[in-house]
Amino acid sequence: MNTPHLPVSLIGAPTDIGAGSRGASMGPEALRVAQIGPILQSHGLEVADRGNLAGPSNPWLPPVDGYRHLAEVTAWNRAVHDAVHAELALGRLPILLGGDHCLGLGSISAVARHCREDGKKLRVLWLDAHADFNTNVLTPSGNLHGMPVACLCGHGPQQLIEIGGQVPAISPKWVRQIGIRSVDAGEKRFVHQMGLEVFDMRFIDEHGMRHAMELALATLDANTHLHVSFDVDFLDPDIAPGVGTTVRGGPSYREAQLCMEMIADTGRLASLDVMELNPALDVRNQTAELAVDLIESLFGKSTLMRDRG
Question: What top-tier enzyme class does this entry carry (predicted)?
């Protein structure tokens, strides 16, 4: 059930401000080197590259009150929010090229705001090795890339949780987390307490990616905006070494392809984040090329030979 896609806007957010290692700031350029724009155009999409957003540089300081670089993270997320919201208002499909995953806060708060204005429901697929549901009390590191989902659900510092104009920006019931396999103990309790729906690797091992995605995509309808927040560390590090927080035991190439193809089959994809690509840790840009390959599948490149007519 592939519907014609909206025109696409690429938005670079070159910062590692929320991360624990340097290098994700080079992610947008690596995705461009891997030809993300021309490859999407080859599928008949209209693609505009909006260039890179600007924001404060990374001061690389220790945490204050459980948060590292809070002022800088806030500035970057405001810039992301405004850019993503502007593209949605133009009827375009924004692809945020990260950057570390703290920027998912700005992106998804903009999507949630757009859905409120348009009277649409929102479904967020969070493809990640980590739940990113820490708070300043729970976090072992203070790195804000471990907190965006909690912030979106209203648990975080005032200046971050208010970015989309409504607190909380989203309900935990709108989120489906897929591929999770590294969660801090306190964070795990908080995830259960808030009722997030998580399809972790144990679930995927036992039931298969197909069943996980059927459940994650259930009840989507024509009035649902589907947002995919794709952290490249979702993938197994054997195939995607270019991330700062590798966790063994992630989805294989085929499992990841199936995940993306089933999202494409819904015809509902309306916004996308591609996060945590770290070329400094990559091997000949293979992780960026794999990410672009999977994004192609999100936009309808299918490995299927049989006619689904």
Answer: hydrolase
128 classed as catalytic: yes
Q: Is 238 a catalytic residue?
A: no
> Which helix (DSSP H) or strand (DSSP E) does residue 175 occupy?
strand 175-178
Q: Would you write out the chain's pLDDT as a tens digit for each of its 309 residues? A: 445 689 999 999 999 999 999 999 999 999 999 999 999 999 999 999 999 999 999 999 999 999 999 999 999 999 999 999 999 999 999 999 999 999 999 999 999 999 999 999 999 999 999 999 999 999 999 999 999 999 999 999 999 999 999 999 999 999 999 999 999 999 999 999 999 999 999 999 999 999 999 999 999 999 999 999 999 999 999 999 999 999 999 999 999 999 999 999 999 999 999 999 999 999 999 999 999 999 999 998 866 655 655
Active site (annotated) includes residue 206: no
Q: Out of 87, 184, 231, 236, pick the active-site residue.
A: 231
The whole-angstrom separation of Cα 255 and Cα 258 is 5
Q: Is 132 a catalytic site residue?
A: yes
* 265 given a catalytic annotation: no
Q: Is 49 a catalytic residue?
A: no
CA nearest 287: which of 199, 17, 250?
250
> How many C-beta atoms surround the C-beta of residue 6 within 10 A?
18
CATH topology of domain 8-298: Arginase; Chain A (3.40.800)
